[in-house]
TrEMBL record:
GST N-terminal domain span: 3-84
Name of the protein in its database record: Glutathione S-transferase
Keyword set, alphabetical order: Transferase
Organism field: Cereibacter changlensis JA139
Keyword Secreted: no
GO molecular function annotation: transferase activity
The keyword Cell membrane is annotated on this UniProt entry: no
Amino acid sequence: MTYDLAIGDRSYSSWSLRGWLLFDAFGIPVQTHSARLYTEALPKLLEGFFPARTVPALRLPDGTAMAESLAIAEELASRHPEAGLWPADPGLRAIARALAAEMHAGFGALRSHCPMNLRVSYEDCAPTEAVLADLARLEVLWAWARERSGGDWLCGAYSAADAFFAPVAARIAGYNLPVGPEAAAYVAAHLAHPSFRRWRAMGLAEGAPQDFYRRDYPTWPWPGPQPLAATVSEGPSENATCPYSGKPVTDFLRIDGRRFGFCNPFCRDKTLADPEAWPKFVAIYHS
């Protein structure tokens, strides 16, 4: 069974992040196909996912293509009930679906004023009254759900509802938006989630920034977990094969005076961005 998922730039495409988390965070294998936003490459990619016009777009194993992350979540939940995309408890499941639906349709001011940008964190973005109203609504929803669930996530264990709010957490972190301690703790949980860290690391490795998302606000360090310090290096390396593909190594990085090899620049650079986000690399690093 093979799923194919079309996505845009990982650093910027918030809807693509939602779609990919529905696979990676729940252990469902998927083959991703990416294209740069605002280029001819994206509509060209989507030709293979007709009639989808936006990302994420999913091609099912039988060749059927579908778009819309909420529909993708429901389809995956029906095909993989063991994955736990929605809570097993009926009450929490109802809450999770309501939260995901409101996220899918709302918070336009926040989205417009603070487009997702995982490459940078701003010290201040002068949020408008409409943005502040969106933040207040988010705090109400998150507090309501987390009080019922009693955990770090909205509805018990990490669910599709949390995947839908991951880009919102990224916006709050990336633009230093004002929220209370409870909401800030929920944002921090997202930034530390292994799948989120892997997605952000791949985005940092994808190439040059998109000018469309550049803002003139003052910047400060990304507020998520700080990665191990690593640099591009020459070989040879301790490992002869890439930890991800098993192919011979051609590109190298250095951590703590040790050299590690990878089969291509992207494998190296996604590891360079956040070495501890990658279990297969961590295994050889600690060996």
